[in-house]
Write a structure and sequence with these properties.
It is a single chain. The chain is an alpha/beta fold and about 220 residues long. The protein has helices spanning about 40-45, 95-105, 110-120, 120-125, 135-150, 165-175; strands at about 1-10, 15-25, 30-35, 55-60, 65, 80, 155-160, 185-190, 200-205, 210. Strand 9 (about 200-205) and strand 10 form a beta hairpin. Helix 2 (about 95-105) runs parallel beside helix 5 and helix 3 crosses helix 5 (about 135-150). The longest helix is centred in the middle third of the chain and has 15 residues, at about 135-150. The chain is globular and about 45 Å long. The N and C termini lie far apart (about 35 Å).
Length: about 220
Amino acid sequence: MLTVESVHVSIGTVQVLRSLRLAVPAQSMVGLIGRNGAGKTTLLRTVMGHLTPSQGRITFEGQDLASVPRHARAAMGIGYMPEDRGLVPELSVEENILVPLWATGARNQRERLEFIYGVLPELAQMRERRALLLSGGQQKLVALARALGVGTRLLLLDEPFEGVAPALSMRLGEVIAGLRGGSLSVLIAQSDLNHSRKLVDGEVVIERGANVVAEAAA
């Protein structure tokens, strides 16, 4: 599904990713684990085309993403939930969910909304509420819903549980767990696996932009 091969990425003069390797098989959930500043967000932004590798290759379903414009990646079925949520404060919950569908010109907008409200019925009840009136946890739910709107093949979730009250954190975990067994693949970037150890099929540990290789047992 998603393959990252020896990717190097720099931001300005700082090299953030160093020969990073990662694979997310079809219909699986993988945890990308690393401390703050390890390079997790940089990798997700690179997959989405916001940053460009200086070396290495990223492929999605066999296609080299270097040839895919940034604006076209959501249309490929890749949904991205950034750590800072990235909602438009003055837009309603439903309008925020629809933004990437509008941008990609999707014709199945009503169908995707029905799917999202089936997964997250609490959002249907607040669909007309402006994003600026939501709590931080509620905004996380909307950000996840927005990613699900276009993320029909792959979801990239950046710290989905960070800064969320326990009850909403549990709810997010339930929603993500409910995606298992479907057609989606999911990459979850986290500082630790406390919230998702039971969710993921495998994990990749990153430190200072590079893979951490587990030591062999003696």
